């Protein structure tokens, strides 16, 4: 999912270098692999320059906060999230009303399953800037993973209404709604589908959840109409994540785990799907452990 985490500042940080090769990994015929993204030399140069600028002694607090934020989003783009989080926290200590920083802190808190901290961060974003609508997406995702689906639906509905034809917005709303009423969630997703562009590749992700296409069709379509280097890796990151979500909804956690691993293998770090694939895997593992413990208790002898 592009451009859904931090507005324009992430543009230009997408990394190139991707190739396609059919493979027989074992889940579906014609399963595709893309060469994982490699670090962009330009981003590495920008990181070095920003580190030099931060050594200048007479920077104002606002300048230092901005340079820390700029370096943080570049660390994030190459997967160095601990370093990014350090920079974001330092930037916020210097400029407590830095809206973009609160947004990232909320995202990182969600990934760490620190949901109360995430809610507070996104609340701060919207208090500082009510027009920062991506906070509704990010808070909605945090509420979804924090098992507060009713509130997640409210935020994700607000986000969808801003752009009703966006497949990604409709999918995340559907995922939250199906926690409350799976049949009604499908009906509403089908209704949202009527407003989508047939030529948008991501519309196929909606068709996947609606059962109109299968995994093979979706993966085949990911190779069509590629316009820039690295685009296949981006599409496969999305495809494998949502295939994993569908597998979880169908109760096939083993298949879901493998698909999430494939999403992570693309190295498209700044995409929503890459960010939350690892959380999905953690949830699957915790669920499996809980089920195993329950079976052990059930088999335990009683005296």
Report on this model:
There is one protein chain. 64% of the residues lie in helices and 3% in strands. The chain is built from 14 helices and two strands, in the order ββαααααααααααααα. Strands 1-2 form a two-stranded antiparallel ribbon. The radius of gyration is 20 Å and the shape is globular. The relative contact order is 0.11.
Give the overall shape: globular
Q: Strand percentage, roughly?
A: under 5%
- Work out the helix count: 14
Biggest sheet, in brief? 2 strands, antiparallel
> Over the alpha carbons, how many angstroms does the gyration radius reach?
20 Å
Order of helices and strands: EEHHHHHHHHHHHHHH
Strand order of the largest sheet: 1-2
Number of separate strands: 2
What is the CA-CA span between the terminal residues? Answer: 55 Å
Alpha-beta content class: mainly alpha
- Which residue ranges are poorly predicted, with pLDDT under 50 across at least 5 consecutive positions? 6-27
Mean pLDDT: 89
Helix content: 55-70%
